[in-house]
Design brief:
By secondary structure, the protein is α+β, with helices and mostly antiparallel strands. The chain contains 3 helices and 5 strands. Helix 1 packs across helix 2.
């Protein structure tokens, strides 16, 4: 049976079945993927000190793979390796789920460590 379109009960020409490869493609801009990665990194890091900059990401897309580089600041003392691992997993999961791309690499760069307020107050002033 050939699909036919109707408008107000009037039959029109048959709808052509276009193969999926010829329909076109959806292209997601690199900056959109970077925003998704930044938001995922924010979710993974959790609460940061008030003077810390929010995480930001840069992305390089090649075919159907996105390589992500995340820059973030963390409080100190903390498990830096553990928190970077959480960021890697969350970013790869969210970018893959929302864009349908493979994420073979998520590099995390800690730009700055912020001394925790409680630790700073306990340390006091030293002469």
């Amino acid at each position: 049976m050939t699909p036919v379109s109707t408008v107000a009960g009037e039959l029109r020409r048959p709808l052509a079945a276009v193969p999926p490869g010829e329909r076109g493609a959806t292209r997601i801009a690199d900056r959109v993927i970077a925003k998704i990665a930044s938001q995922a990194a924010r979710e993974a890091v959790g609460a940061l000190p008030p003077d810390a900059a929010p995480p930001h990401a840069t992305v390089v897309v090649h075919h159907h793979a996105a390589r992500v580089h995340v820059h973030l600041e963390l409080d100190y003392p903390t498990d830096v390796g553990g928190r970077c691992g959480q960021v890697r997993r969350r970013v790869a999961e969210r970018v893959g789920a929302l864009t349908g791309m493979d994420v073979p690499e998520v590099a995390v760069q800690v730009e700055r460590l912020h001394l925790a307020a409680a630790h700073r107050a306990a340390r006091g002033r030293t002469r």
